[in-house]
Write a structure and sequence with these properties.
heterodimer; A: alpha/beta; Glutaconate Coenzyme A-transferase; 13 strands; 16% helix; globular; B: 233 residues; alpha/beta; 3-stranded antiparallel sheet; 6 helices; 24% strand
Chain lengths: 218, 233
Amino acid sequence: MALDKNQIAQRIAREVQDGYYVNLGIGIPTLVANYVREDIDVEFQSENGVLGMGPFPYDGEEDADIINAGKQTITTLPGASFFDSATSFSMIRGKHVDLTILGAMEVAENGDIANWKIPGKMVKGMGGAMDLVASAENIIVAMMHTNRAGESKLLKKCSLPLTGVGCVKKIVSNLAVLEVTAAGFKLLERAPGVSVEEIQAATEGALIVDGDIPEMKF
Amino acid sequence: MITKKVTGVDAALEGVESGMTMMLGGFGLSGIPENSIAKLVALDVNNLTCISNNAGVDDFGLGLLLQKKQIKKMVSSYVGENAEFERQMLSGELDVELIPQGTLAERCRAAQAGFPAIYTPAGYGTEVAEGKETREFDGKMYVLEHAFKADFAFVKAWKGDAAGNLVFKGTARNFNPNMCGAATITVAEVEELVPVGTLDPNQIHIPGIFVQRIFQGETYEKRIEQRTVRTRD
């Protein structure tokens, strides 16, 4: 069966390693924090200027001066720090952040990503997404494999305006885990009960299937 | 000591005129210069170009200037929280330049630090880089982005003193330090103007040299945009 959003987050959490500084985008990526193993040390960065983000505050303890990039009230953990926006993007652009997890509308087989603009619809802006994808060496995209009409979002070439070129390394969708290689999307794992044929049918870009593809473990 | 203290918001905004370019600190509604924005509304200046990460909400922050159609152009990275903004943008009344958030911060910092332009990888290969100079360094492509030029920078800090020294709190810091000294005149408003000598020189985030005018804001609403809490078990 295809994964739900929480299961996608749960699978991505397995990619988070001890000692990682991690930037989480809005949406499914935010949920990843709920599933990171408790026996490893990880710090979450939010690009509006905090490292060492904690959970949401208890009712009555929220502070207008302590928010995340989604403008939600948050708390900080021991060892946390605050900094200005230029310093925040120095962490990102300077490759000090180990892992970036973000959502996407489309990904192409060469690693191009589109996630900020649909022509003809209200454009809200790219926020920090273009800086993140242009610089991070380790980017995981959390996304649905197809749109509501059932059309693939893993394409030969993105149809929407790009956020960055050739930058996505790994995708965790509701159907599969895939690595972006020079030859296209390499299938690494299947969602439980989802066949290679179903994944092939939902993937427009080149899909590389090499040997037996195991089911995901959580 | 060189003093930067002015009597209040009226004196702090002296010289502000229609058609000027302004930088305004803040991320969402956190750390915005509330008192300076209220005064810009009262002054009724228009045709403003505003460089600010966001554009406020309908009835707070830069949304107050949008309501009165005082803004000609917004330079921002994310503007989604404002219905009046959307209406003016779609009708063509408002010119909007969307730029990556890190590029916005660095174009402020470049102006502060005396760099005419910087190279950034952000936006390479996208429509953001169209018409801009690009260059390869060590096998990777970068886009040339120019320092901002602004008449006024309006920033908000937690504490400050008459020397213009500033201390920020939490994530209300955001773009505020990067905009200090990045415009012809930097106006800093603070929640608390403390006596000179009480701020520890080791703990100052922005030295007074980057600030021309400082005043204590009369009130701060500090509105929360997305109140998110957890319940006690």
